[in-house]
Amino acid sequence: MLYYWRYCGLLLHFLPLDGLRKARLDVKGGKDVLPNAEDVKMSQTVQNHMNDVIKRGPNAGQLSRPYIDSDGTTLLLKEIMESADPVPDAILQSGLRWDVSGTFRGSTGTWKLVVDTSTNTVVHFNFVAR
Amino acid sequence: MKFEIVKGSKIGNIEERYFISDRSFDCNPAANVDINVVMAYLNLGVDSEDMCVKCLWGFSPRESWKEVNLFVPSAIEGGLRLVGEYEAGLTWRIDKNKMWESYFDKESGWYCIGNSMLEDEDTAVKVIDNMIAVVDNTSELKAVWVQPIFV
After folding, report:
1. A77 assigned to some structural domain
2. N or C: which end of chain A has fewer CB within 10 A?
3. Is the dihedral of CA B71, B73, B74, B79 positive or negative?
4. pTM (2 decimals)?
5. What ipTM does the predicted assembly reach?
6. Is residue A35 part of a domain?
7. Which residues of B touch A (CB under 8 A)?
8. Is B79 left (phi over 0), alpha (psi -120 to 50) or beta?
């Protein structure tokens, strides 16, 4: 099954979701500490370049990173979080990281999401092309 | 990913800052970038019009920085151009095999991500007043140095 997310004519999909898994992490006394996509907020860092505009090529005039702040952002975060088990982040002690295969603007790559669970804040959110 | 150094003037009237509360870098004033080259969680922002690096931005918590004595490379002034075809609106990772590490010299205030050891054939270019990029003799980016304003 493929999941699609449409934003301003951009088609994104995740490959493949074999059911929506709810990861459980054995941290902090074994309690679930997974954030909800509906509740997380974006750090200023993540928002800083959300209005950058593409200047050249087939997507000229579009936002460079439209997935940061749109009607579909929460859904996208939810799908990423439900597509893979997070791992403890290597850089941020209170961070959880998701790496999920997908496509964006016709390129295959990986959605990278890091959430600081101590503040329920997305500190890194990117699509990295392969 | 290959880079070439463009000798000439660095980008004027712009400075790199480190936002303590947000644990992140960005430049001031803000620069529009539409290609990003990512190392760890930091982005080298490139403008697709001239393919030159305009800023370093992104998350870099201080607890991940290794405190060391750093020897800042002497650098020529100029620009750093990303070479090759990269579609604007996308991000590419430069540290695919192992995430680049961050170093900080609290005496000098210089931060470095990547390989902080300079070799004879490396070239360092000051692209912003307080930011230096180091490219090796195969045109690969080796490190980025910043002496940020902490705000």
Report:
1. yes
2. N
3. negative
4. 0.88
5. 0.90
6. yes
7. 19, 22-24, 26, 30, 32-34, 36, 38, 40-41, 43, 45, 47-49, 57-61, 63-64, 87-93, 99
8. beta
